[in-house]
Amino acid sequence: MTSALPRPSRPSRGGRRLAIAAASVGLASAAAVAVALALPAWVKGRFIDACAGEGVTASVDDVGLTFTAIHLRGVRFTSGALPQVRVTGRELTVTLDGFTPTNATLDGADVLVDGAIDDVRAAVAAFAAAQKGGTASPDGPAPSGGGSAESMATLASITVTGGHVMWKRILGAATELEASGVSGKAQLAPAAAVAYSGQTTAMTLAGIASGLGPWRGSFEGTSRSQTLRVFLDPKQTAAQVTVVAAGATTDVDVKIARTKIATLGIPPMLVALPPSGTTEVQVALKAKLTGEEQLDGDVDVSLFGMHLAGAPAPLDVRLVGAVAGDPAKPLAFKNGALYLGPVAAAVNGTLTPVWTARGTGKDLVGTRADLAFRAGPIPCATLAKQALATVVPAGGLAGDLARQLGGMAAGAAEQAGRALGLTTTLTASGTITFDSRDPTRTEATVKSANACGLTIFASP
Question: The whole model's pTM is what?
Fold first, then answer.
């Protein structure tokens, strides 16, 4: 007797649908995993290609994705058309509107610049012009001109946070500018309103004397002009240098309210002052450079509590005047006046910028001042009255001058003149030589026909 094998049962329609659904989910999951694995690499490639389209060589360590942003970690940027600059960043976040990049933020930016400031400015300007015009650089990838989807041209702004800048050879072979706490923003759209601004919490300049700073700074600019402000005392704004560059014109404005030189991040020896740093300074300086052929400026510098050889006590010194001429040649110092306490002297001479050749250009390495002054004839009694009219702090300048000249102010000028074997008028002249490259060799000479009993004006 034989028995029939059971027939396999046919799956129900519901079972078939469940199996199909399971297979579909499996395939979809596998596809999603594949996309998730492949998408970062695809985005990375697209980003690198987009940078290449702008003449920039980029590399990325890692990519993270969300629905609203792309996170590129460990980014590095260089350009054959701009070899003086290299940029790295901890993370570049690109925000998206759908699939369109809208804004970018670079955190932990580290910028290394190597080259003289004029060379770098020219190279950056040429690079920017090439990007705008879409012209290819012979030293790097050909820019796309900003018109393709690869060009990142949809970005409205780029923000930098937590930045650090190291600029080597900025003002000569041995100089180095370092800035930390750098932050800023560049507004890229609309194209007619491109602008940028930013700040640094601390910067120093090495290679000049024992080093300058720390200072605080801010910067801003458009396609037409750029402004840099340096606050010499990071704690306040009463001592600042402002530089505005617009086309072929550069304006420099230095304003320093009365303060001790030691608070300005400037070694006293750099300006031929005693190393104690207790001398107070006040500065108002304006200069305009037009092209490379004309420099015009006004100088008003006051030093309070100067210790000068032969002076019975610290002196207040003020120098005012104007310069004009070709900065490649000695500049005439015009309408000059030198005030030493109550004594006023006319000043003339030259200020000579000192340049050193650098390739096809040149660097400013210092300034030499050769000045001559002449005072008098001034009646000694007049000097005495001026000294006595000055507020007299205990042991201060006016008090010592009053002790020297008080008898003259009281009508004893003739008696003092007989005692000293001098006439009753002051006539003095002399020279001052200063070279910023070696302030320790500053020299001053004095020649007088009569010093009214003031040892500071006595001829040797």
Answer: 0.74
Domain termination residue (choose one: 192, 207, 222): 207
Q: Please, are residues 109 and 160 in contact by the beta-carbon 8 Å criterion?
A: yes
Q: Which helix (H) or strand (E) holds 297?
A: strand 294-306
First to last CA, the chain: 149
What tokens were used for 418? Answer: 């007989």
Tell me if 55 is assigned to some domain. yes
Looking at 191, 207, 223, the residue that finishes a domain is: 207
C-alpha closest to that of 181 among 108, 92, 87, 241 = 108
As a whole number of angstroms, the distance between CA 19 and CA 42 comes to 33
Q: Which domain holds residue 367?
A: 334-460
Q: What pLDDT score does 99 carry?
A: 80
Nearest to 325 by CA among 354, 364, 352, 363: 352
CA 184 to chain centre: 15
Same domain? For 195 and 48 the reply is yes
Please identify every stretch of the chain with a pLDDT value under 70, giving residue numbers as ranges: 1-38, 131-153, 191-192, 277, 308-313, 357-364, 383-423, 449-460
φ/ψ of residue 294, rounded to 5? -140, 130
Q: Degrees (nearest 5) of the Cα angle 306, 310, 311?
A: 45
Tens digits of per-residue pLDDT, 7-49?
555 555 555 555 555 555 545 554 444 444 567 787 888 888 8
For the residues of 223-262, what is the DSSP string, one character each? Answer: SSEEEEEEESSTT-SSEEEEEEEETTEEEEEEEEEEEEGG
- Domain membership flag for residue 381: yes
Q: Is residue 106 part of a domain?
A: yes
Residue 301 belongs to a domain:
no
Supply angle C-alpha 127, 133, 139, rounded to 5. 40
- In angstroms, the CA 230 to CA 306 distance is 26
Q: Give the number of domains in the chain.
A: 2
- Distances from the Cα of 208 to the Cαs of 169, 172, 229, 437, in angstroms? 12, 10, 20, 9
- What pLDDT, in 10s, does the model give residues 247-257? 889 999 999 99
